[in-house]
Design goal:
D-Maltodextrin-Binding Protein, domain 2; alpha/beta; 13 strands; Arc Repressor Mutant, subunit A; 9-stranded mixed beta sheet; two-stranded antiparallel ribbon
Length: 302
Amino acid sequence: MTLRHLRTFVTVAEEGSFNGAAEKLSRTQPAITLAVKQLEEFIGLKLLERTTRQVSTTAEGENFIPIAQRLVRDFDTAIYDLRATAERRSGHVSMAIVPSVASNLLPDIIKAFSAEYPGIHLHLDDDSSQGVQRRVERNEVDFGIASLWKPNKLLNFKPLFADKLELICHVDHHLAKKTGPVKINELEDTTFLDTGITKTLRSRASFGDSKFDFPNITTLLAMLRSNLGVSVLPSLAIPAFSNNLISRPLMPTQAREVYLITRKGWTVSPAAEAMIETIIRETPSQIRKHNLTLRTNEANHS
């Protein structure tokens, strides 16, 4: 017994005619008759009573109609949902992104995505680069956007952009009085506040360990506003307007590379693929808007 047999039986019962069912299903009347006969032989019961003028259901057929209708309807609904997903008319995307990118670049990108794919639902978690990479590795999200925490053979890293790292401190700090770039070696005698970003600095080891580590950007900014010490942040993470914080360029210049992170050998859903395509398409305009540096070379950090 196949779905074709069930669909044929339901249609004949609803139309009350073999000819009507044949027309509705775009099949010949003998094919309709044969399908019903095969179904009855498989079950071992007569489901339809045939007369010269009409077709009616037997008692067993009447009881079977709602069951057959539900089976056909559930199948049609499942196929419709799969097609809607494949055609990007529905679906769900989960992503993990570092806060500075999520709050500055993503709003315009998500707005463009939602206008193009209104039926797709989005879920976004912000996390440190370490957290983003771990979430992608554990398959907790479809993809991530972050800087490189450490090489990983399970992940692909596609470069998106880079933003400059800058010193950030309280306006009353002595380094805030400088008018030009701050040299890295000038940080040796300061109280330095570590973050996930500062730990990846090429020159981080040159100015010693810090007893302060604030991975959360909100906490770090609060400590900086209290003039506890200084830190280094990418330009995207530095508040645009702050009365008591100031940023200065670093010498030599250093940058944070930001990547689109996916699992190797893993095919993302059509919805996630659509989101990734939108991010790649819209990123250049965001780079111009925020004065960032485009990165187009492929990277395989493994």
